[in-house]
Amino acid sequence: MASSSWQKSSYSANANECVEVRTADGLIELRESDEGGVIVRTTPTKFAKFLQGVKDGEFDHFASPSN
Questions:
Q1: Cβ contact 57:64 at 8 Å
Q2: How far apart are CA 65 and CA 29, in angstroms?
Q3: Which residues are CB-neighbours of 7 under 8 A, at least 6 positions away?
Q4: Count of alpha carbons within 13 Å of 50, Cβ hemisphere only?
Q5: What is d(CA 44, CA 62) in angstroms, rounded to the nearest whole number?
Q6: Which residues, including other chains, have CB under 8 Å from residue 60's CB and lie 6 or more apart?
Q7: Residue 41 CA to chain centroid, in angstroms?
Q8: Phi and psi (nearest 5°) for 57?
Q9: How many Cα atoms occupy the beta-carbon half-sphere of 5 within 13 Å?
Q10: pTM, whole model, 2 decimals?
Q11: pLDDT over threshold 80, residue 66
């Protein structure tokens, strides 16, 4: 299985509780650094659409204390 190294956001500094991302066999893999065995896999296109949705505020309502 060809894969790249896990990368985390530069905003995380040295924190151990962050989301990490890498490529593996043409897919994008995501995991939480403190739960390394749980990996979510998706396609690059779906991941790009998700990131665009985050940037556009599509998921901001999930951050509301009422949710």
A1: no
A2: 29
A3: 20, 21, 22
A4: 9
A5: 23
A6: none
A7: 10
A8: 85, 10
A9: 2
A10: 0.76
A11: no
